[in-house]
Amino acid sequence: MRIKSALAAAAIVTLAAACGGGGGGEPAAPGEPVKLDFLSLAWQKESVAANKELVNEWNKAHPNIQVTYVQGSWDNVNDQLVTQFAGGTAPDVIHNDSPALAGFASDGYLLDLSGKLPAELKSDIPQHAWDTVTFAGGEGEQGVYGVPFLQESQVIIANKKLLDESGVRVPTPEEPWTWDEFSEAAKKMTKDGQYGVAWAMKSPVNKTLNLALNFGGTFFQTTDGNTTVKVGPEEREVLQRIHDQLYKDKSADPAALGQGTADPLPAFFQGKFAMLPTGVYLRQQVVEQAPDGFEWVTLPAPKGTSAQQGAVSQTLSIAQESEHPDEALQFISFFLNAANQAKLAKGDWLLPTSQKAAADPAMTTEENGWDVATASAQNLVVAPFLKVNGYDEWRSKVATPVLQEYFANKISLDEVAKRLVEEGNQVLERYHR
């Protein structure tokens, strides 16, 4: 869901060894506690602390169901899980994100939670979030293969001084900028070596595909069960507008193009540009790294024909082979109740799926832009690419290099459309059933 910190890789415990007692373990002996392994991908300091605190709280209250916290890494979790699923050593409870679930569900590695979820948990999470974890399983029938608990939206982090000096209308969740207003604002903030905006596009695909929904751009269409790529007028809108900021308006800082999400922050703090479109989680690094006296605000993302954005979810799933699925679901229900989701969201600087958690005062305070961030969850809909078998390969082998070339002004938008469709469909054909 985000650019992952190198700290996560440093903290990783080799999962194949650490999780050996999970799904492939023996049932608990009479009188002994049930033992569950919980693979967590938390990586930020606050998030890891919140995860471990909740595990400890559970273990104290449930002496007969003991959970072992296992630290994993976003950098290689799916490769590790493939090995573990094949070897029968997968952890009982698995933290991942929704794009990864489709393949594991179709291969029969995850437990279908349909009909098993407690009513309170199910009703507290809106349907659009459940849609992110609903896939065809091994038998081809739709099932729910995880509990969605954290989501990310796109916002704009702005230098308050430069924003105020520009005299532009400050957008609110109720009245966000249109893309035209956003472009005009960026132009007004561009002067004397200062740019209005910076687009970090080292990993351009998820950001642009999620924002493309502002104009109804889905990039994929499915007919008779087979999915193909489409790049029509709706899909071109956001791509063209970002390109125009770079090369027509010259209001976007070209130095940021090859950078990862957090890389532009030093230049942002120095006033080299006024606005940084990014995921909500980056607010944490702004808080930690901003120099004394630097004032910043969180603004909602611009809207097109709608304010919709594509959503993916962080999830907790249960391994199909777990010896203790009922106990694993009990733990998940505790771990993801409303109060705990609020703690996890604060620790990860993301948005809880729980509607009760979203109403927590900690989620609606103006401090550090939580009010704007939480309000943005209203615009999240299931990302179309979540349902595409073969999306990860299309993203890495086709879309990433093509969009990088486009934003570097090396190819035209027509060439982008041609290559995304032609090369993309060659990839997706291998996944058709």
Provide key terms for this protein.
single chain; 433 residues; alpha/beta; 6-stranded mixed sheet; 4-stranded mixed sheet; 20 helices; 17% strand; globular; disordered N terminus
Number of helices: 20
Contiguous uncertain segments of 5+ residues:
1-22
Major pleated sheet = 6 strands, mixed
Structural class: alpha/beta
Query: What's the β-strand tally?
Result: 16
Can you walk through the features of this model?
The chain is an alpha/beta fold. Helices cover 42% and strands 17% of the residues. The strands form five sheets. It has a six-stranded mixed beta sheet with strand order 2-1-3-14-6-15. A four-stranded mixed beta sheet has the order 8-11-7-12. The radius of gyration is 22 Å and the shape is globular.
Short description:
By secondary structure, the chain is an alpha/beta fold. It has helices at residues 6-11, 15-18, 45-61, 77-87, 98-106, 119-124, 127-131, 160-166, 179-188, 205-212, 233-247, 265-269, 283-289, 325-335, 338-348, 355-358, 361-364, 370-375, 391-407, 413-429; strands at 34-40, 65-71, 93-97, 134-136, 142-144, 147-151, 154-159, 195-197, 220-223, 226-229, 273-279, 296-300, 309-311, 313-318, 351-352, 380-382. It is 42% helix and 17% strand.
Outline the fold blueprint.
Layout: H1 6-11, H2 15-18, E1 34-40, H3 45-61, E2 65-71, H4 77-87, E3 93-97, H5 98-106, H6 119-124, H7 127-131, E4 134-136, E5 142-144, E6 147-151, E7 154-159, H8 160-166, H9 179-188, E8 195-197, H10 205-212, E9 220-223, E10 226-229, H11 233-247, H12 265-269, E11 273-279, H13 283-289, E12 296-300, E13 309-311, E14 313-318, H14 325-335, H15 338-348, E15 351-352, H16 355-358, H17 361-364, H18 370-375, E16 380-382, H19 391-407, H20 413-429
Parallel strand pairs: 1-2, 1-3, 8-11, 13-16
Antiparallel strand pairs: 3-14, 4-5, 6-14, 6-15, 7-11, 7-12, 9-10
